[in-house]
Design brief:
The chain has about 200 residues and is of the alpha+beta class. The chain is built from three helices and twelve strands; from the N terminus they run βββββαββββββαβα. Strand 10 and strand 11 form a beta hairpin.
């Protein structure tokens, strides 16, 4: 489990294209501290498994399903990525519960800079819109953010200077894809309420 608090901006060092997958080599001096084979590291919000680790670099395999559902397929050598290690039991939950299971992708639609923050508008797939609510939590490229405004096909977030300086959202441009993970609690509530309603209809 992650919290959506990005630890560092990493870099893609190498990309190897396989028949139905990709192998990425990434540099991240912070997240590789103490890393070992089989550990998990979130890359742009996608939970990946460390296959190999040497110095401040690690290798991870990404299967076709993940490439299809995320923006990792668009990464190239030199791409910057958000990196986060899993939260440890007993640590503070700085953001919100993030699984590292991307639900879909959106697109940066607009950026409105201000003196102390920046409003970013992001497109929202129709099948995810019901999970995104005003003042709720959403994960964008692995970053835990609070929704400012929620529309049917878009939402906005407000970014502070720290987020702009330390994550990929500081360099993303309109048209760039971003990974989206909605609040897992909302999905569980929907499932439980749906089962309850179905059960009530059966007993009528």
């Amino acid at each position: 489990m992650f919290t959506g608090i990005v630890e560092e901006l990493g870099e893609v060092i190498a990309v190897e294209t396989l028949d139905d997958a990709c192998r990425f080599r990434l540099r991240g001096p912070v997240v590789t501290q103490g890393a070992k084979h089989g550990d998990s590291i979130a890359v742009n919000g996608v939970c990946l498994t460390v296959v190999d680790h040497e110095g401040d670099e690690f290798t991870a395999d990404v299967m076709a399903e993940t490439l299809k559902r995320s923006n990792l397929g668009a990464l190239a050598v030199g791409s910057r990525v958000n990196l986060e290690r899993p939260t440890a039991v007993g640590d503070r939950l700085g953001g919100h519960i993030v699984q590292g299971h991307v639900d879909g992708t959106g697109e940066i639609l607009d950026r409105t800079p201000s003196e102390h923050w920046e409003i970013v508008k992001i497109s929202l797939p129709a099948d995810l819109s019901r999970y995104v609510v005003e003042k709720g939590s959403v994960t964008v490229d692995g970053i835990s953010l609070t929704v400012v405004d929620a529309g049917r096909d878009h939402f906005t977030v407000s970014l502070i200077p720290t987020t702009l300086a330390l994550t990929t959202l500081g360099i993303k441009k309109p048209g760039d894809p971003v990974n989206l993970e909605v609040d897992v609690i909302a999905k569980y509530v929907e499932r439980m309420l749906g089962d309850r309603v179905a059960g009530e209809e059966v007993t009528r």
